[in-house]
Design goal:
Chain lengths: 479, 290
């Protein structure tokens, strides 16, 4: 009788404890994996703590070096080992991973939090084959960074006007970009004009793509930047790409000696340390410049320059435009999360993903040092106040408006996402570095890349590659 | 009866060795005759010697052999020449020999990745001390890591710097084990220091020298860390070594069949170089022994 009374007394208490776990995942342990921290992994850890407190579940975060992620995830999922409940990976791998990923629950694809994700991420990068297979947890694109102290200096403005005949401002065409780079390279105001990454293995190809998007991402032929979306023939040796390569190479003249060996990690401190007037980079340069660099207060960001000419691969001619067309390139595309089909805790895993990508947690992550998380929600771009711990108000407005404008640009260019991504980019990197070092002519390098890309496409299966390419570019399947 | 007992003891050890040592090799050899790709996932298919033929027809493979051989041969020769000289100096108890002994050995204890990172700073074309040094002679901003010839020279210098201590260590041990009475007799006969070295020390050290150089040659062919960090194999493929080539095939393209074939070709290359070297070393040793 005593025991019965005790049980009755304890029952409400137990219900209270239980009620604190919403949803209740007591006894569930999620295995979550991504690259070695702090970047990305620290954001996953913070979300894990928050999710554990809410749901009473547990999270086991497993980190691997970046180079090991792809084979570990793919092998695990293809062999149905059930090793991972949530994986953190890059969009370029989606074509290979998609068959093994579960679809995002319908309830996550609606409501305020869903509508708050920028449509480019929501509708294009998170979608594969008409289904939402992943959740963006980080927004990424290439942008132009410049220094307001140099660009707004009266002496510089006057000298630039005299030399080039137009106002010194953030460049809106690549021609202007090189004028400005040349001007500052010759000026005493700063050491060098601009900095970009050129090193093989230093993410050089994304920089090259950023140039090429302006000359090859033709709005009349959507999805034709890398391959002909009807035949899967490589387009990388057409005149648009040639011009992009010649210009990309020209940038070496306006950077520090040894730029050929600079990776993206070298480009950031060059800008943040005040050695260059501009650089091209992801959002990291701006953050570094404002927080740890010597140019705090002068960090300004702009959309990548565009062009008034874009190559039309169908007509084999340049299409001319009255105004420069901006074709900002979503280099890399940002880290994503997904739940493999072989996860035994899919519901809990998606609940964790929802927690991590919630406006509250992601809003904190984007302004927390070393998370590696950049804005991707509309609320991230609108909430200037949130950024004042890092930037001045002018810096924040410039930084956020450049990113928002890039995503809103009608001719925004998506990154290459294709099965065998690294096989294609390795060929590209080798020939690109030969051309940049002057070992071969740019056209010869591009012809070699095109021929080897076509060979690779045939080896992987032209039809399946074409279907994957069209899906990655948001084009409907061919009949 | 005894025979049966013998088998009971031998077979477990034999099977263990078979599983641990031979199975991976046999598995890799089998895979090298197939097309196996993880990306995009491709079912295994027997292709005979196609993978080997493709690699042998690939200019990049021969380029990687030439690059690796250049780095290894020049750096090992330099390591031996410097290492033997330092060992001789330390053997003759120069002032501060104990301090030098410890100091000279330090580079060998560093991880090659750390060495490469240090070298990357030293050979920075603007900020590095190497640039400051050459600037004194009017040679500013030399393309240490972006010109193929400079980059290979830098890699040779790094290999030499890191692995000369290994040669010093072994040659010093060899010198300390040479019979003292031979040298005493030479001194009594008033034989010059140079002739003592040429006719006594060097010939007596020759078998050890051959072994040390052989070890360094084999180890040198595995070079990957420093190249990966410093140049990534570039510009183009001008500094790409055999192991880096194999790494790129295996971990960028995930072409497992091709990578396995490449590994065995790598083994053959090392065996060929090793055999040629041993044949030459044997002749030299025999000539001095006569």
């Amino acid at each position: 009788m005593k025991n019965l009374l005790l049980s009755v007394a304890v029952l409400p208490l137990a219900t209270i404890v239980h009620a604190e776990c919403l949803p209740d995942y007591t006894g569930v342990t999620l295995t979550i994996s991504t690259q070695n921290g702090p970047y990305v992994a620290s954001a996953l850890q913070t979300a894990a703590e928050s999710w554990e407190a809410k749901t009473c579940g547990e999270v086991n975060l497993v980190e691997f070096p970046f180079g090991e992620l792809y084979p570990k995830f793919l092998t695990g999922m293809s062999q149905q080992t059930g090793d991972f409940d949530v994986i953190g990976f890059i969009p370029a791998w989606v074509p290979d991973f998609a068959p093994y990923l579960s679809t995002m629950p319908a309830e996550m694809q609606q409501g305020e939090a869903w509508d708050d994700i920028h449509p480019v991420y929501r509708e294009r990068l998170m979608s594969w084959g008409g289904e939402i297979k992943s959740a963006t947890m980080d927004g990424d694109m290439h942008m132009l960074n410049f220094r307001s102290d140099l660009f707004e200096d009266e002496a510089n403005k006057t000298a630039f006007m005299e030399q080039y005949g137009y106002d010194l401002a953030a460049p809106i065409t690549w021609d202007q970009y090189y004028d400005i780079a040349e001007f500052f390279n010759e000026s005493d105001a700063v050491n060098y004009g601009t900095a970009e990454a050129y090193a093989r293995g230093g993410q050089q190809f994304w920089y090259f793509f950023s140039h090429a998007a302006s000359y090859t991402n033709n709005p009349s032929n959507p999805g034709s930047m890398f391959f002909d979306p009807e035949t899967m023939d490589a387009q990388i040796n057409n005149e648009g790409w040639l011009r992009a390569l010649e210009e990309y190479k020209r940038g070496l003249d306006f950077g520090p000696p040894g730029s050929l060996n600079n990776g993206s990690g070298d480009v950031r401190p060059l800008y943040a340390g005040g050695s260059v007037a501009m650089n091209l980079d992801w959002a990291d340069s701006g953050i570094l410049g404002a927080t740890e660099g010597s140019i705090a207060g002068s960090v300004r960001t702009a959309m990548l320059p565009g062009s008034t000419q874009i190559w039309n691969h169908v007509t084999g001619e340049w299409d001319m435009f009255d105004e420069p067309v901006a074709s900002p390139f979503l280099a890399f595309g940002g880290w994503q999360l997904a739940v493999p089909i072989d996860s035994k805790n899919q519901e809990a895993a998606w609940s964790y993903v929802a927690e991590l990508t919630s406006p509250e947690l992601s809003g904190a992550a984007i302004v927390t040092a070393n998370t590696g998380v950049n804005p991707y929600r509309l609320s991230h771009y609108d909430n200037i106040e949130n950024w004042l711990s890092i930037f001045t108000e002018e810096e924040a407005r410039s930084y956020l408006s450049a990113q928002r404008a890039s995503l809103d640009a009608p001719n925004v260019a998506l990154d290459l996402r294709l099965p065998g991504f690294f096989s294609y980019t390795e060929i590209l990197e080798i020939e690109l570095s030969k051309a940049l070092a002057g070992q071969v002519e740019p056209q010869e390098a591009l012809n070699t890349i095109a021929a080897e890309w076509d060979e690779l496409t045939d080896e992987f299966g032209r039809d399946s590659q074409l279907a994957a390419y069209r899906a990655s570019m948001g084009l409907p399947p061919l009949n | 009866m005894n025979d049966r007992v013998k088998h009971i003891f031998i077979w477990p050890a034999f099977l263990l060795v078979l599983v641990i040592t031979l199975f991976p090799l046999i598995y890799a050899l089998t895979v090298s005759f197939q097309t196996v790709r993880i990306v995009p996932p491709t079912p295994a298919r027997f292709v005979g010697f196609d993978n080997y033929a493709d690699i042998l027809a690939n200019a990049r493979f021969w380029g990687a052999i030439a690059t690796t051989a250049t780095i290894v041969i020049i750096s090992v020769l330099a390591q031996y020449a410097i290492g033997l000289s330092v060992a001789l100096a330390l053997h003759h108890n120069v002032p501060g020999a104990s301090l030098f002994r410890v100091t000279f050995l330090l580079p060998m204890f560093l991880a090659p990745v750390c060495v490469a990172l240090i070298a990357k700073m030293i050979f920075h074309p603007v900020l590095g001390p190497a640039n400051e040094f050459f600037s004194m002679f009017g040679l500013e901003n030399l393309p240490f890591l972006t010109d193929p010839n400079f980059a290979i020279a830098v890699l040779i210098a790094i290999e030499t710097w890191q692995w000369t201590p290994f040669v010093v260590l072994l040659m010093l041990a060899g010198l300390q084990n040479l019979p003292a009475e031979v040298f005493e007799a030479a001194r009594v006969d008033n034989i010059s220091a140079w002739r003592r070295f040429r006719d006594i020390t060097f010939p007596m050290l020759l078998p050890l020298s051959a072994a040390v150089i052989f070890i360094r040659l084999i180890e040198g062919f595995k070079i990957i860390d420093t190249v990966f960090i410093l140049t990534g194999g570039g510009p183009g493929t001008s500094t790409e070594t055999l192991t880096l080539f194999a790494y790129n095939e295996g971990f960028k393209k995930f072409n497992i069949g091709m990578t396995s074939a490449l590994s065995f070709l790598f083994l053959i290359v090392v065996i060929v170089f090793g055999t040629l070297y041993l044949a030459g070393a044997r002749k030299l040793t025999q000539r001095y022994a006569q």
